[in-house]
Each structure stands twice: as structure tokens, then as C-alpha cells.
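General statements about sequence and structure are easier to judge against a single worked case. When preparing material for the folding task, we compiled for one chain both its residues and its C-alpha cells. The amino acid sequence and the C-alpha cells for this protein are reproduced below:
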Amino acid sequence: MTISFDHHRPIYLQLKEYLYSGICRGERPPGEKLPSVREFAVEAGVNPNTVSRTYSEMERDGVAVSKRGQGTFVTTEEHIIDKLRVELAESQVDAFLQSMERMGLPPHKIVELIKDRAENSSKEDPS
């Protein structure tokens, strides 16, 4: 596992985003056991307390469930994962829009560009 950390942001948040991304892509399906705190700390090259905080935050968000003596698991509640997926997508769209606004593009031009790219993309990839 390779995670490039941004040293200007809390590591536990970046670990949470990394795990959330894997959950949304289906790499960590509902009900799957997450690595133990120690295992994940070694894999990520961080302090176990950081992983503990990450898992606690995930539980607070409802995305992970801790079972006493068994470990931490991805929630089996699909609606929570669907909500997480939408939130991550919205976050990416917001970052994209901010980037386009910094380039001085008005909203209607941004929409036009996206529409053109999407249409061209579907012509290139008929799947």
C-alpha cells in the first residue's frame, strides 16, 4: 500500500479518505473486516494511535462497525455507503468547480465543456 501523505492535513483524515475511497470502489465490500490497527499502522507507516483515531471517526460516521474481540468491519448498510459515495463525488465536483473558477471560466462554459467531453468520451468508449 502506498499512500502519499499531505503534511499540511491530519494523517487520520487522509487514512479515512483512503479507506472511504476503497469502500466506494467496492475494494472493501460491506461486511469486510478491516485490517487490525497494528497491521494497518505498519502498512501505512503511521502510529497505531493514528489508525485508532481513523477507525473511531469511521465508526462515528457509521461507515465502520467495531465488534468486541473481532475487529472493525465495513458497515453492511448499503444506504450509508451510497451516501458516502455521493458525498465523495460532490466533494470532487466542488474541487473541480473551484479549479475552473480560478481559471476564470463562467458556470455556463464549465457545463458546456463537461457536456462536450462526456459526449466525446461516450463516442470513444461505446461500453
